[in-house]
Request: fold
Amino acid sequence: MAYDGKDKVLEEVTGKSYEFGFTTEIESDKAPAGLNEDIIRLISAKKDEPAWLLKWRLEAFAVWQTMEEPDWPHLNYEKPDYQAISYYAAPKQKKQLNSLDEVDPELRRTMDKLGISMEEQKRLSGVAVDFVMDSVSVATSFKEKLAELGIIFCSMSEAVKEHPELVRKHLGSVVPTRDNFFSALNSAVFTDGSFCYIPKGVRCPMELSTYFRINESGTGQFERTLVVADEGSYVSYLEGCTAPQRDENQLHAAVVELVALDEAEIKYSTVQNWYPGDAQGKGGVYNFVTKRGICHRRSKISWTQVETGSAVTWKYPSCILKGDHSVGEFYSVAVTNNAQQADTGTKMIHLGKNTHSTIISKGISAGNSHNSYRGLVQIMPSAANARNFSQCDSLLMTDTSGAHTFPYIEVKNPTAQVEHEATTSKIGEDQIFYCLQRGIDAEQAISLIVNGYAKEVLNQLPMEFAVEAQKLLSISLEGSVG
Amino acid sequence: MLKINELKASIDEAQILKGLNLTINPGEVHAIMGPNGSGKSTLASVLAGREDYEVDGGSVDFEGADLLDMDATERARAGLFLAFQYPVEIPGVSNINFMRAAVNGKREHEGKEPIKGKDFLDMVKEKAKLVELDGRLRNRSVNEGFSGGEKKRNEIFQMAMLEPKLAILDETDSGLDIDALRIVSEGVNAMRSPDRSFLVITHYQRLLDYIVPDFVHVLVDGRIVRSGGKELALELEEKGYDWIKEDVTA
Reply:
């Protein structure tokens, strides 16, 4: 193997091994602020990328320069100064702490409430852990098992080196660089992410989670994920983490592409809990994500998301139902509290015959937050007998929060059946009082009611994730009803 | 058990209870009857700690503690139960999970560990028998899609699970057919004991044929205007509330 984990660590530490071969004077591990062709060449060189990828990045950059940041979302934020951001920093080692006592008590309190084990808490907060043999062997046997089945699960950088033909074939095939402002930016400057390939007819026997990914070197603010499920295969992929995630980077612009070939199925679950900023809305992550999957004949893609973090969320996990009899699903719970804003939803593009899609969206707004559902259901002329069912519910926790729904429906084939249901309700005083009268305290009452409301979506999550997600919803809404 | 002294309460500036006195001893069943708008349900809500109501005066002693000083959860945990006139639906929350949270809330108050899964299920089975609440209703979302009778049976089931010291039944008979009325009443009667008291609020005498009270009080315009034994209910049934009203104003 040409690639060795140790070398990679060395590269990260010294940051100098791959600097040769280009003309800028940059020597440090952090690129100066600003974005230009030289910076992109720097990123590509640092990562020792093949020429085709550099060319691809430069094309994306050229496109991005002609584009403008969208202002159609129902979001109010100060647009980032893209020339003030540094686009490359060697993955930083998390600051090593000696014990959990050094961890921010607020973070610890939340992790305790989530029921995250001590070992896991240490891992998440960067406390030095004596390597427990167990956890190493779990990861190793996990990787061996996957290799036996021919499943590839690695970082995007590793995939570019080890499986260039697969990456080249599918990268940008679902989300073209010019798709939108943020996808173009991501294509130009992405630093890492995950790659996953499931061979023909293989059913991946475990949930693939970034938690288990070896050689993970920090997710970075411009993450790129590509999941390819070959014919007749199945994979369930978990992204994110219920634990609160602090990040110095205010801007996150990730791209996720899913390819489900004939009769394949991809289940993609996300829990997003980036730092939402303080109660006044200061700080907090801007999360602009482009997620899209393409479904070939008789395949299925199912998106499930639980969004509780970030100051601003702009995200529409979508399905292109290209193949006949393909199925797209979108299940979402988005919680906003304090000054958070979310504009999220999905797009279901029906191209194939007998294609079906289901959209279940549950918005929960508390504090002074604004929560919007934005969805497009498009039935193209070729999509005979296409069907869609959409249900968009909004729950308001306070009088000062807002819930908004922007459904777009375009039907160009008369045989289509499209249903849309929407409700908006305020959390019932009667429901809360009923719980209180049974001896349930106010916090738990809200947790019960909200989790009941979101149950249809939470049920879609893998078991162990669902339990944490339930707790997360309660924590996100703590003290939100007076 | 419960001692209400000169209780005054209002909602949206309108005074509903205007100096109500009532004492309930352990093991007693008291019925409160009265015309619409006399303050029956307000009394139930104020005792249970609903915040929409403003207490303007008076005191309520519950088992030696100042009831009005406790919030709704504390009152429930201390053993006060209200069977709602209109039980509330909570979509997506199964009856069982709801009751487990309630039972554990009470246990926490008593300094006990959360109940074990098997013990809880055994308890559910035993208590559900009282009101013939079958497994289907136990596992459905709280009151969602329940018929009127099923909702009321569910209230009594919850009461049996929580084993309160004082149970207030707020017009539990409203909307019940004769079979449901019998089942609900039998459930209540099975729970009567020397250390558990009941406050039965009703508009009609009918319920009191099934749940026979020790005392009957007539509430008119926010005050108890007459008290007596169970025969008072029969007299009311015969003569109507106007008789009492005239009597009071005369």
About this structure: DSSP finds ten helices and twelve strands in chain B.
